[in-house]
Amino acid sequence: MAWSNQSVVTEFILRGLSSSSELQIFYFLFFSIVYAATVLGNLLIVLTIASEPHLHSPMYFLLSNLSFIDMSLASFATPKMIADFLSAYKVISFEGCITQIFFLHLLGGAEIVLLISMSFDRYVAICKPLRYLTIMSRRMCVGLVVLSWIVGIFHALSQLAFTVNLPFCGPNEVDSFFCDLPLVIKLACVDTYILGVFMISTSGMIALVCFVLLVISYTIILVTVRKHSSGGSSKALSTCSAHFTVVTLFFGPCIFIYVWPFTNFPIDKVLSVFYTIFTPLLNPMIYTLRNKDVKYSMRKLSHRIFKSRKTDHTP
Questions:
Q1: pTM for the model
Q2: Is residue 301 situated within a structural domain?
Q3: What's the first-to-final CA gap in the chain, in angstroms?
Q4: Euclidean distance between CA atoms 224 and 244, whole angstroms
Q5: Fewer beta carbons below 10 Å: N end or C end of the chain?
Q6: For residue 50, is it within any domain?
Q7: Are 68 and 49 spatial neighbours (Cβ–Cβ below 8 Å)?
Q8: pLDDT tens-place string over residues 186-241
Q9: Which of helix, strand or coil describes residue 264?
Q10: Which domain holds residue 158?
């Protein structure tokens, strides 16, 4: 794989979601609302957890970091996609394309580790409750978050190690609304089979293995919860079911896209929209709708904000 970067392609054309002008206007309005809701929803979770002392627990600390990652994941490509709906010529520079790939894998890798950390947190809370605060100390929680970013950085760099030096000298149309690695490497002027296998082993299989481990973890937690019938166990079951729903929504599309990078499926574009736009939107909805503490704290924070604004406007 001793390629030299002899690229003559300086920009890529993004084919987007549709070529219909009517649909693009609809998409512009729809995704603008979805993106605004995603950012505001996740930002509200971060601010609520940061401002409410009774939410300063390991689970909510990890949740606030997940919301920050989701907010970032929704922002690495969505604003450009929205702007492109109003543009007839949808292009992105070579550097911009590589930047999108880097942030996608950085945030994706960090979220995988964070979801595993949240699973571990629930396992300790339910299966080892007497040792929970000892194991899930502040140092442990901060360490898990730092580890998630370190893994994300190394994963992103591993994906770009060979990609940046691929020669692109011919077609430059990417059949998506952002630069996704499986689609970009197919445009290279050399055989990328080995790189594709590397991508399967580092993205597809890692996502698949992590998902299986998470399923096993939550199954163990579920079996433990089933042995109890108290209100606390019901609350734990509700929390874990919300976590598992998020895990499934995130890993499902990733596994489908990256385990079969050599084959294009019509549903690939839909899945890309789902895990980069809709999953970050659904996460705050899933966690808040099923968590009374977060809903109460959000109402309390909103009431405090509106009250302060009313006081400011009072002569």
A1: 0.84
A2: no
A3: 72
A4: 16
A5: C
A6: yes
A7: no
A8: 888 887 777 777 776 677 777 888 888 888 888 888 787 777 655 555 666 666 77
A9: coil
A10: 11-295
